[in-house]
Design a protein that fits this description.
The protein is mainly beta. The chain is about 10% helix and about 40% strand. The chain is built from 5 helices and 37 strands. A 4-stranded mixed β-sheet has the order 2-1-4-3, covered by helices on one side. Strands 5-37-36-35 form a 4-stranded antiparallel β-sheet, with no helix packed on it. The mean pLDDT is about 90.
Length: about 500
């Protein structure tokens, strides 16, 4: 007589439902067997108190490993999404991958030996891809050459134009708030201070101007000293500023970089040494200023004394742009996805410093990586704090590269070029990941979402594109501009994308 099993109880049904909801479906093609897994924190390089676990091969998927790690760390109530990097790999396992098909079957690891997985937390929040134009705002009388969102939230965005004005826009209502007049020629660069209270602008008139972001009033007069147009602006990181004395660095075609006391309106010092136009300046989080130039070199300066520390050589043509792996946290200081602003200036300082240190720590050390993009169609990855030699040279673009940018989590690097392509690289060692193909004109800029999962790009072909970085596939195609799009920014809170170009319209995009 056949044995009759009792029907499952309510509790068993509930448990089964929970397993099917949280765990990935078991792949029936995976053979029986187990694998030993060791979890290592990518930031510290240590296992800590985590045990080495024996996991059934059929259940060793990325999602199940994430659940397991959260359980071991006792984070079941507030689960954190993780990326897993097999030892020695620069690319993380995909969301739907498993250890058998990714490592054991191709022979990259043996089921008999221990598999070490480095884990790194992903952003706990998820940014949704922008999919529609929420506002197309006219007002500027000429090409829009620069846009930037306030680090506080996406309600305010500044734009600089060929009509000699800077405008601050209310992105909630799609209306202009302030028109900042003072420049006598094109405005080429706009930059918010890390706390969001001040706005700097630089133009073809060789002047830097400082404005109150809230009221649009000028702070002092024009900062004069450069003898040619301003190419870029970079603020001193918030955690390095003296109280009440924020400083901003400006680079110029005259071959110099000048560091200004923004409130006092005086120059602190000038950095001279480049033999050609300085194309980009970046102010790092540990008191270094990085500059790139048409003389084919990059230079590293001490931000407190203005003295030259090292010259980085390697490019065969003009260096067009620089990016720092800590750009995002330096830009946003103590502002993050929680929107909780510390009450006192000491707490603000401490939070800004902690966010920088967390973003810059790799293997227990502070590492600030630098990427440079050049007219020679190549990119270089540097660790200028430890070496004057590049980590790697990245080739693949067929034409000169306009811009390079790091993802907020410091894992990815995107480059936009005249060959109509955006390329994606691993920011750890420069390994090539994807070519993002869909634009039919030169790509001027790219900007990551705050969770590092999406990328927006703008082009001469009049469109914006949004890309899914897990797959390298096009997520959204955003037509609307009537002419080429020069300027692009994804707000630090992830809510909106702003763009501007030759059609003189600012466009705000959202989900």
């Amino acid at each position: 007589m056949a044995t009759q099993f009792p029907p499952p109880s309510k509790r068993q049904k509930r448990d089964q439902l929970e397993i099917s909801r949280t765990q990935q479906d078991i792949d029936t093609t995976i053979p029986d067997g187990t694998v030993r897994v060791r979890f290592v924190d990518q930031a510290t390089g240590e296992t800590g108190s985590l045990p080495v676990l024996t996991v059934p091969l059929s259940q060793a998927s990325t999602k199940n490993l994430e659940i397991l790690l959260n359980e071991l760390k006792e984070q079941t109530d507030d689960r954190i999404p993780y990326r897993f990097f097999p030892e020695g790999a620069t690319e993380a396992l995909g969301d739907k991958e498993d250890l058998y098909n990714a490592l054991v079957k191709p022979g990259k690891a043996s089921a008999e030996s221990e598999i070490t997985l480095q884990y790194a937390p992903q952003a706990v929040f998820r940014v949704r891809a922008v999919s529609r134009c929420a506002a197309a705002i006219s007002g500027h009388g000429d090409n829009i050459l620069a846009v930037q969102f306030s680090p506080i939230n996406s309600s305010r965005m500044a734009s600089g134009s060929g009509d000699k004005t800077v405008r601050i826009w209310d992105c909630d209502t799609g209306t202009p708030v302030h028109t900042l007049k003072g420049h006598t020629k094109w405005v080429l660069a706009v930059s918010y201070s890390p706390d969001g209270s001040i706005l700097a602008s630089g133009g073809y008139d060789s002047e830097v101007r400082i404005w109150e972001a809230g009221t649009g009033k000028a702070i002092g007069g024009a900062l004069k000293g450069h003898t040619a147009f301003i190419t870029s602006l970079s603020w001193e990181p918030y955690h390095l500023q003296q109280e009440g004395r924020p400083r901003v660095a400006s680079s110029s075609k005259d071959g110099t970089v000048r560091v200004w006391n923004a409130i006092g309106g005086k120059i602190d010092f000038a950095l001279t040494g480049h033999k050609g136009s300085v194309t980009c300046v970046k102010w790092g989080g540990i008191g270094r200023i990085y500059t790139s130039s048409h003389d084919k070199t990059l230079k590293v300066w001490d931000a407190s004394t203005g003295s030259l520390i090292s010259t980085l050589s390697g490019h065969a043509h003009w260096v067009n742009h620089l990016a720092l792996s800590t750009d995002f946290v330096l830009r946003t200081a103590y502002h993050d996805h929680t929107h909780r602003v510390p009450a006192t200036s000491e707490e603000k300082l401490a939070k800004a410093k902690a966010r920088f240190e967390k973003a810059a720590t790799v293997g227990g050390e502070i590492v600030e990586r630098l990427a440079s993009a050049s007219e020679d169609c190549t990119l270089f990855l540097w660790t200028p704090l430890t070496s004057a030699k590049p980590v790697t040279r990245m080739t693949g673009h067929q034409k000169q590269i306009n811009q390079v940018t790091f993802s907020p989590d410091g894992m990815l690097l995107a480059s936009a070029a005249w060959d109509n392509h955006v390329k994606l690289w691993s920011a750890r060692d420069g390994k090539f990941l994807f070519t993002l193909r869909a634009h039919v004109g030169p790509v001027y800029m790219a900007s990551f979402s705050a969770d590092s999962r999406l990328l927006a790009s703008c082009s001469k072909d009049t469109t914006l594109k949004v890309w899914d970085l897990r797959t390298g596939k096009l997520k959204e195609d955003l037509p609307g501009h009537k002419d080429q799009v020069f300027a692009l920014d994804w707000s630090p809170d992830g809510e909106r994308v702003g763009s501007g170009g030759a059609d003189k319209q600012v466009r705000i995009w959202r989900n």
